[in-house]
Amino acid sequence: MPSLEDFKPFVVTGLALGGVYALSGVGMVVLYRATGVLNLAFGAVGAMGALLAWQLINVNSWAQGPAFLVCVLFGGAVTLLYGVLFGPPLSGRDPLVKATATLGLALILLGIMDLVWSDKARSMILPTSNHGFEVSDVFVNWTEVIALGFALAVMTVTALFLRFTKTGTAMRALANDREITATLGVPVRRVEAAAWLGSGLVSGASGLLLSNLVGLDAATLTFLVISSLAATLIGRLRSITVTFIAGIVIGLVNALVTPIVSISQYRDMTPFVLATIALLVLSGRRGSALAGRAG
Q1: Rounded to two decimals, what is the model's pTM?
Q2: E strands, the chain, where?
Q3: pLDDT digits (tens, 9 = 90+) for 197-224
Q4: Domains of the chain with CATH codes
Q5: CB neighbourhood size of 264 (10 A)
Q6: How far is the CA of 281 from the CAs of 184, 277, 287, in angstroms?
Q7: How far apart (Å, rounded) are the C-alpha atoms in residues 144 and 139?
């Protein structure tokens, strides 16, 4: 069993990764609440945006700032285009059908990335990764701070947006009943487009941060969406606060398991295990509450 000192660097890593999982989870929850679509292509969109930024910096000699901006805007553009083209015909379909359709988008993007960039090792080093500070003899770079801080900021702004703006109120109304919301004169297509765009921008930012934290690999970045998906399930695809907390916990537990040799090989199971436990506990409490009311 590693000593307490051995876990310190993994706490920092876990918080940073948890921040990105939480950020991605919030983006997925907002989209689901507005459109009923669970976007399984979230990771693939961010991965391709990060690879585009790498291409612009290392091949086309772009400055890092504009290339990073392209990464984020690419995420917004791809998801918005998908939402505009396929959102309306899928609006009345079963949630499983909607999710499967986004899986198709993920596979298409994976194929393009494999064709254009193949499997050669690449790295994306943000300027903030070379600078930082020490906490209890552990070096913390500014990218790790930004990952956690940005997730917290997005969660806070999103909560305020949904509560106090007309578009946010319309998104919450769509989550409750799409048909009634439409009959009240709410521009449903416009509200859904805003949700697709916002979720896509978050996807691009998440891909950029993850490419620095875990490496620039298309498959790895694409399937890290599983951790974010687990966080959204714990939040029951409704609560962005619970989703944020769940993302942080998943990142922390996943990282803290790493130095424990006997179980580190199973750490990829962390999101599933935590999601299962949380859902069982929440279901048990709900069942007890219903039984109490019936009694």
Answers
A1: 0.89
A2: 132-135, 138-141
A3: 999 999 999 999 999 888 888 888 888 8
A4: 4-129+137-294 (1.10.3470)
A5: 11
A6: 38, 6, 10
A7: 10
The residues that bridge with 135 in the sheet, in sequence order, are 138
What confidence tens digit (pLDDT) does each residue in 31-80 have?
Answer: 998 888 899 999 999 999 999 999 999 989 999 999 999 999 999 999 99
248 Cβ contact partners less than 8 Å away, ≥ 6 residues apart? 15, 18, 19, 21, 22, 148
CA 86 to CA 80: how far, in whole Å? Answer: 10
* In contact, 230 and 246? CB cutoff 8 Å: yes
**Do 116 and 105 form a contact (C-beta atoms < 8 A)?**
no
Picking from 180, 162, 164, the residue whose alpha carbon sits closest to that of residue 172 is 162
Amino acid sitting at position 86: F
Alpha helix locations (H) across 91-141?
Answer: 95-117
Residues 143-153 pLDDT 10s: 999 999 999 99
Give Cα separations from 196 to 77, 119, 171, 203 (angstroms).
9, 30, 11, 10
